[in-house]
Structures are given as C-alpha cells and as structure tokens.
C-alpha cells in the first residue's frame, strides 16, 4: 500500500472506531463511515467489500499489532524506558492494553464489544498455543489441546473485562501474577 492508501485506510478505521464508540455495530451504515472518514463510496469499496470486512480488518490490525508487540519485547513503544521488559508475554500484553493505543479498551467495552471480544479471543488462541500449550504442557495431557487453548484465552478475555470494569486498579504485573497462578497448574 502506498502512503495515500494507508492514510485513507487509517481515516476509515478512525471513523469506524469513532462511530463504534457511539452506537452499536448493527446500527452503523457504510454511508456514516464514508461521511465520518470524508472519503468517497468508491474509495471505501476499493478498500473493503463490506462493513463486515472493515470490522475484520480493524480487528486484525488492532489485535495483530498488540499480539505481535507482546511477542516481540523489543517493540515496546517506550513502555520500558525506566525498567526491563517483562518476561511474561501476558504481562507485556496487559501493558499494551493499559497503554490503550487505538482506544482498544473502549472497543472491548463498547456496545458492540462481543464482536471485538471474539476477534481478541481468536488472536489470543494463536498466542497461547505457540507460547504455552505447544512448549510448556506437562499436565493434563489427556485434555484436548483446542479445549485447553479455548479455556485459557476465554479466561484471559474475562480477566481483561473484569479489569476494565474495575477501572484497571491492578497493575499489569499484578494481573499477570493472578492469571499465571490460575493457568500454570493446568499446563
């Protein structure tokens, strides 16, 4: 993508995110997205076939960035200028969520949150499989791998929602410690 296309795509993402913060996904029209982004209908459809494609692309962009950032501790957005990066990928992920780039916390708790939570969980499934289940699994080897991955990612998503609803009083380090204390015995 050239710069012009990247700017247009970013404008559409921003417009869509702004609208999602105000109303449910099902009530947002392509025309509203076009108007808010200040792009033409043809331009919108050159980037996305449908509103669902836009949602999928937005989620892949947001969650892909957060997950890849969590995996790559050198990609820290200045989070660790005064300390070392955490050893736990979960802690790193929570710190990125706390940083709240792209207003991801608002999307996870907005009226359309179930859509975002599904994409977030799917992104986590890959992370959990690669980082934990494939490498560290010692216990409960009779439990199907997909069940275990689903359980851990669902638990992480619920913990993040609990954290958001409680105004994020716990630090990412505290949450990481709680979460690992719960999941490590089953791995």
Key descriptive features of the protein:
single chain; 187 residues; mainly alpha; 9 helices
Fold blueprint:
Layout: H1 3-22, H2 30-37, H3 41-47, H4 51-71, H5 89-99, H6 104-109, H7 113-136, H8 145-165, H9 172-183
Account of the 3D structure:
The chain has 187 residues and is mainly alpha-helical. The protein contains nine helices and no strands.
User: How much of the residues is beta strand, in percent?
Assistant: under 5%
Helix content: 55-70%
Count the strands? 0
| Low-pLDDT segments, ≥5 res | 75-86
Q: List the helices and strands in order.
A: HHHHHHHHH
Alpha plus pi helix count = 9
The backbone outline, from C-alpha atoms, is elongated
The largest sheet, given as strand count, sense and whether it forms a barrel, is: none
Q: If you compute it from the alpha carbons, what radius of gyration comes out, rounded to the nearest whole angstrom?
A: 18 Å
Structural class: mainly alpha
Termini, distance in Å? 42 Å
**What does the average pLDDT come to?**
81
Concise description?
With 187 residues, this protein is mainly alpha-helical. Helix content is 70%, strand content 0%.
